[in-house]
Amino acid sequence: MAEVRIAKGWINYRLLNTGNGEKEEQWGDYVLRRPEPQAVWPSSGSWQKAHAVYHRSSSGGGQWEYLKDMPEKWVIGYKDLKFNVETMGFKHTGLFPEQSVNWDFMADKIMKAGTPSNILNLFAYTGAATAACSKAGASVCHVDSAKGMIQRAKDNLGLSGLLDKPVRFIVDDARKFVQREIRRGNKYDGILMDPPAYGRGPSGELWKIEDELYELVELCSQLLSEKPLFFLVSTYASTLTPLLMENILNMILVKKFGGKVETYELGIQSSFDGLILPCGFTGRWELR
What pTM was estimated for this model as a whole? Predict the structure, then answer.
């Protein structure tokens, strides 16, 4: 069985119930119920009275139904970090709690390095990983193709008191940005990415993870410093497997630098019945 690493340390987030293709979560003072393709089993508990429920549309997408009064956005905490939560399009909330497993790993590597670290965060979304790396003392280059996500990331840095830290925000297609950084001769001590399975860049560039991942990892390897700290790829794409990811990282990074590769599933444990909800997986390379 693949190793599963469970997100812990959340101050006011809980997974309340799963099943029948849905999940219910406590985000601070508010309960949200939304689709969850991985929850294929029957629910073993009763659903709470959610403040909002996300309904899928048969034609694609969907919408939130608000059942109780609630704000447009509110704040929850993870250890010494704070983040905004909001009901966004495509059932999202602006935060993926399971990724705290990876935030902790990166923060630990940065703090133990003993020297200033330069980190590249691709497909950086609302900046939770950027905040974690910045809090640990790194300089961070935060890249996302959606301008609105850049502002959300800045807001999250502000909540954690990190706006004065060295963070560079870039609105760009990930691959094009990496190619320019190679030409500029810039180097990074750590690179992380959480690419979508399918999407488009700011100029309509088509992205399909199974077609693009190997090339992107190979390009990014050219940006790593002489003795890098880590390279981390997280994905929710059903078209990829941990073994496939392990092969890519071994072929590119271990061949070039040595070091080791690990892959593991991410999970969140239900507070009701202890069941662990699978939340994608991570491929991780580190030099030592």
Answer: 0.94
